[in-house]
Amino acid sequence: MGRTVEILTGKAELCRSIMGALPDWFSEPEVIEASAQAIEDLPVFGYVEADVVTALMALKLHPPGAVEIALIATRPEHHGRGAGRHLIDAAERFGHESGARLLTVKTLAPRGRDEPQFEATRRFYDRNGFVRAEVFAKLWHEEHPCLFMVKPLADVEAAETALRDDGAFCLARRQ
């Protein structure tokens, strides 16, 4: 049995290691490198089994009410063993603590090709309560349509947006 931990250092190296082991999903070196650089400033969580980080997830806040799973990846030899589910649980907890009402993720939309790895990814999100909300045909690239998926976070108190004096948004809890 593993555990979920927050990763504070070595995020880019860990990202390169895990994404590099998944060529069926991440075949473009520039995408791996851009992802590794992008997660350095994001909250990152890992699932650890026997002192090995078997999966990682980076989260991006979209105030006032959403948290995006910017990246989630599991080492191939650990697929189907629950690491992803544990990371989704951590994302939900992070969302609750952040006052978010939605958890979102973007993944590759169906392209009319035989791509079982991406169908498995979409089924993973379906099983974990995400709703297929919209396809953005050219968000990333016309050959890589983006499927935007959303999961409402249950048991989150209703909140309303407030604008602070410095112009930043914050959440104000209703009483």
From TrEMBL:
CDD domains: NAT_SF (cd04301). Keywords: Plasmid. InterPro entries: Acyl_CoA_acyltransferase, GNAT_dom. SUPFAM superfamilies: Acyl-CoA N-acyltransferases (Nat). Pfam families: Acetyltransf_7 (PF13508). Residues 5-154 form the N-acetyltransferase domain. Signal peptide: none annotated. It comes from the Bacteria. This is GNAT family N-acetyltransferase. It comes from Rhizobium beringeri.
